[in-house]
Specification:
Blueprint lengths: L18 H14 L7 H5 L5 H12 L10 H14 L3 H7 L5 H18 L15 H4 L1 H18 L5 E2 L13 H5 L8 H11 L3 H5 L10 H8 L13 E2 L5
Antiparallel strand pairs: 1-2
Helix pairs in contact: 1-8, 4-5, 5-6
This protein binds a DNA duplex (21 and 21 nucleotides) through helix 3, helix 6 and helix 7.
Length: about 250
DNA sequence: AATACGATCAACCGCAATGCT
DNA sequence: GAGCATTGCGGTTGATCGTAT
């Protein structure tokens, strides 16, 4: 189905993320970095909005996120910074490394809000048992840990290189967190992306996903056929991805 | 055992800010 | 400066789970 502008119109998936979707997003970001949330899902083979992908990554998949319960120190920090900043959750989150704004917001609403309302001067804190949390028991936490390992294995087997204005040397290996969260990235060339998908869906699975490959005929993709040197440099002039050696 | 209810948290939605053309 | 795309934020919702009855 196409819109009047000739763009592909896809039905976007909503609701809980599956393991497979997590795996695809992690693997894609490990390989190409974060270059454009709106366009990324399509190239990663995800039927999700960019917003949804960004949220999933920021709140759950980002490797430097802490997975455990909020500590007493962190709780005191939340109380302290909330008294200064109010409901500016993202600002509070920046003060607590490894915690997302969503996590802090949820923690506030479920643990602290009532307590602060009933007792404005809170000194101590109740340590909640996160093992009782439904989400801790769901597939997401434990299985995603395993999934992150799988994704890391995948990314470790990829050749990843780029150059920048600041650093004319070429870096190889997997990008660090700072590198790929700093916006370094590229959707890759058509052939490069094919290799990426083959890594995710070896042989027999590739046929099943033929419909997904309709995107190779997407108008944006057509650019890449005519520009084989730095096909995606128009997205980010500072970086260009080297042809994959996979 | 079945049901109701509350707690928790991942995900969605709408809007504002920002950047680009 | 207008219009559009993208990103980031905060409020809210809904699914899931544990517990009480």
């Amino acid at each position: 189905m196409r819109t009047q502008k000739g763009e592909m119109k896809t039905i976007l998936k909503k609701g809980a993320w599956s393991l497979e979707e997590d795996r695809m997003l992690i693997a894609y970001i490990n390989r190409y970095g974060i270059w454009n949330w709106s366009h990324m899902p399509k190239y990663a083979g995800l039927l999700r909005s960019g917003k949804s992908c960004r949220l999933r990554w920021m709140n759950y998949l980002k490797p430097d996120l802490k997975k455990g319960s909020i500590s007493e120190e962190e709780e005191q920090s939340i109380l302290h910074f909330h008294s200064i900043l109010g409901n500016r959750w993202s600002a509070i989150a920046r003060k607590l490394p490894g915690r997302s704004d969503n996590e802090i917001k949820n923690y506030w609403h479920t643990n602290l809000k009532k307590r602060v309302a009933s007792n404005p001067v809170i000194k101590g804190s109740k340590q909640k048992d996160k093992n009782k949390s439904p989400c801790f028991k769901s597939h997401n936490v434990e299985e995603t840990k395993e999934d992150l390992n799988i994704a890391n294995d995948i990314s470790n087997n990829f050749h990843f290189s780029w150059t920048s204005e600041d650093d004319s040397s070429t870096s190889s290996g997997s990008p660090t967190l700072n590198e790929f969260t700093a916006g370094i990235g590229s959707p890759g060339t058509v052939e490069d992306l094919r290799c990426f998908w083959r890594e995710l869906y070896p042989l027999e699975d590739l046929d099943i996903r033929k419909s997904d490959q309709e995107m190779f005929h997407d108008h944006i993709f057509q650019y890449s056929y005519d520009d084989t040197i730095a096909p995606w440099s128009f997205y980010n002039d500072e970086y260009e991805i080297a042809p994959s050696s996979v």
